[in-house]
Amino acid sequence: MEKNTLTEAFLKSGGKLPEKQNNALEGLIFIPTWDNEPPPLKPVIHINGIPLLTYQNLSVLIAQPGFGKSSICEAILSKVASKEADAFGIDVDIKKALYIDCERTNLDVHASWKRMMRRGKLIDENDRVVFMGMRMIARLDQRKKAIEKVLNDDKDIDLLIIDGAGDLVMDTNSLMEANELKVWLRELTSKHALSILTTLHPNPGDNKPRGHIGSELLREAESILAVEKHGEIRKLTTEFKHGKNRNAGAVETYFKYCDNEGMMIRASEDEYIAQGKDEYQGKKKMPPMVYFVELNPLMNALDNVIGKDAYQYGELIKRFKEYINEAHPGCSNGDNVIKAWISKLVDEGHVIKKNGARHSVYTMAQTLLI
What is the rounded distance in angstroms from the CA atom of residue 85 to the CA atom of residue 44? Predict the structure, then answer.
């Protein structure tokens, strides 16, 4: 079998593309041979000793507003600035980091910078972290140019944190913009020899980031984390529906807000589990369906959704979604939320799961039927 002509030309030229090929592509195309295996990628961020983000890759952090995504960014930056920082089990191998915030006011950005400094026990200004608040730059192209200028001027930056990738597109549901952003981020990792961490908001009631931008960045990312919350205890984890850590194992760590410190500090798994049990017990003491459809009585809700009929799982989810949309439009109605509460209703005996001929079916408990 004849060799691929491009491969043959590559080998004969000693690893260079022939002159007739587009010179702009030289050095950008990689053709594997027995003698050019690249070295393993260097991990640049670890959590509890497990690599999370490697050189020239992308990591995505998903969190609802107020769940602490900016605090996680601060913790990572504090660890870049000082090895003394308490960063919830996060460690880094970074020379210098650039942090971009396009949303918060200058006062909020300054407060974030101060928390980073206090976490790292730093007094003097630190030249290993560059904080940039770009709320006053309205145009997306100007925001990108500002980021690129800093990276061009400072060759030591090897970690870029963009706190809010949605602030770099006009429409999160535009596939064209999502692809443009994905390609731009990929180009930055190559051109400037750096790694990128960015944050995204999810859909209400779910951990899936919004729109095409979320879908494209999930595909592009090496690792995807989410922040989950029981009361005031947060868990940072790759173990959720959309989570992954492509080149290592599962990652999780815990943190909480401390009034005395005025910032987030590390918490334990036991605290998280205990807080979750307390939340669940509190919900059970409320009227039966308060935790699902706010103040609607259980019997009325299930009578509308199921009544005396039996439904397969997919149809039951659809009926719950339609009922919540109509009767309680302000409540979360994502598939994951509904699935969780169907499981609770089955566990508590309000809904009966029966094995059917081909699929399980769900009926209302006899004690609730009129």
Answer: 16
Tell me which amino acid residue 347 is.
D
Q: Are residues 210 and 253 in the same domain?
A: yes
Instruction: Name the pairing type of β-strands 223-230 and 233-237.
Output: antiparallel
- Provide the whole-model pTM: 0.71
Tell me, yes or no, whether 178 lies in a domain.
yes
281 within domain boundaries: no
Sheet with 361-364, strands from edge to edge, namely 311-312, 361-364, 351-354
pLDDT-wise least confident of 209-218, 311-320, 356-365: 356-365
> 359 is in which domain, residue-wise?
287-368
* Residue 321: burial class (beta carbons within 10 Å; 0-12, 13-18, 19+): middle
- Count the domains in the chain: 3
Identify the band that residue 311 occupies on the pLDDT scale cut at 50, 70 and 90.
Answer: confident
Task: Answer whether residue 160 is part of any domain.
Answer: yes
What pLDDT shows up at residue 121?
92
Same domain membership, residue 107 and residue 132: yes
Tell me, yes or no, whether 308 lies in a domain. yes
Give me Rg for the CA atoms of the chain. Answer: 25
pLDDT at 298: 61
Residue 97: give its domain's CATH number.
Answer: 3.40.50.300
